[in-house]
Automatic annotation (TrEMBL):
Name used for this protein in its record: YALI0E03872p
Cell inner membrane as UniProt keyword: no
Organism: Yarrowia lipolytica (strain CLIB 122 / E 150)
Keywords: Membrane, Transmembrane, Transmembrane helix
Coiled coil spans: none
Lineage: Eukaryota, Fungi, Dikarya, Ascomycota, Saccharomycotina
Amino acid sequence: MVFKYIGDTLGLTPVLKSSWDVHALIIMRFFRLMAFGQISVILAQFFDAHGFSQDKTGLFMSLTLAGDVGLSLFLTTYGDRLGRKNVLLIGAGLMTLSGLVFFHESNYYLLLLAAICGVISPSGAEVGPFRAIEESTLAQLTTLEARADVFAWYTLLGSLGAALGALVGGWTVQIAQEKYHFTKLEAYKTVFLTYAAIGFIKFIASCFLSRKVEAPAEETEPLLANDQENATEERAELRNNIKKRGGLRNLLPNISPESQKIITTLCLLFAIDSMGSSLANFSWISYYIQRKFDISTGYLGSVFFVTGIVGALATLVGSGISRRLGPLLTMVVTHLPSSALIILLPVPSTVQGVITILAIRACTAQMDVAPRQAFLSAVVLKNERTLVMGWVGTIKTLAQLPGPYITGYLARHNKQWIAFVAAGSLKVIYDLSILSYFTRVKLDRDQN
């Protein structure tokens, strides 16, 4: 009874009762975010060790995100046709290849090419086609009642992986330098070798996913019909509609009019939030702290490990709050304090003060993630989820494009504090706007 109570309270019971595919997707995200977390601690310093300027580092991050837009857009738009399992395999292969190039090469343009064509996270956050495919699959494999808890643990283990990655990445560099007398650059490259190894492990794990992860027939077919005659008529109508749309609009997802209105508004608001996040991503925060206070990489990794653990555990609290307040209100009341705290990040004159702000912010920064995933999957129809989640992810990434370069430019001129103030302000605007608009939107439209 005690274990059942704990499992129900923490939302663990629905996850344990889920299929092997659900477990596999959650575990793969843990290792993927672990790899991303490793490089987030050292990416800006990696380019600094090469002698590249801060604005050139920011440009690299922005162009990497641009490459991620094209890759994610293609693989998520055609993900259900190519096969979700195949898309995950492609992504893992590109992740492995990118890590190997970063380990072996030092030329700026070769590194940029590997990052644009492959999978490299410039901020420690999710990149590539993985998340949209996985979230769509998880929504398909779980019931509405279990979905929030499954997404919460999916987010939790991802956050734990990112936190562990920051710890491992930071101490790998420090131990390589102090014990094995590696140069800074050699120590940083060791992290990318680990990154490639994790990508290969993820590739192997993806091979064991079952056919249940694939989209049902009605989601991969453009039309539904009870007989061949109706199907033929509907195909003709679809071709006419496509011709009417014409040009670049053929690339846009074909979703219901009501969903189009909802997704357009959501994309705009998510873009504002993402722009704020890109101005103060983990790589630039890491760079700012190490540059201002001259602390070791191992200590820095430990700081992000602790704040990451706090944020990961707070995710479970967010799931419980979501069951009581609903996903929308939970998104706002948990995200708003963390948004405001970014503005205060440049204020402390000691590293302890900055760590305190990061720790307090970590208490609520991740609470909105699982409710947001559940909210997004509930406001669109089942057969639209893969496309919509892919396009929302693409829009969010597009909005992030100028942010890293702007922060790099400000850092080069010793004005990085402006980026933190702008980031927090944009995220506060997002919180207040999404609450005011979506209060009236119905959830679970499939049942409605």
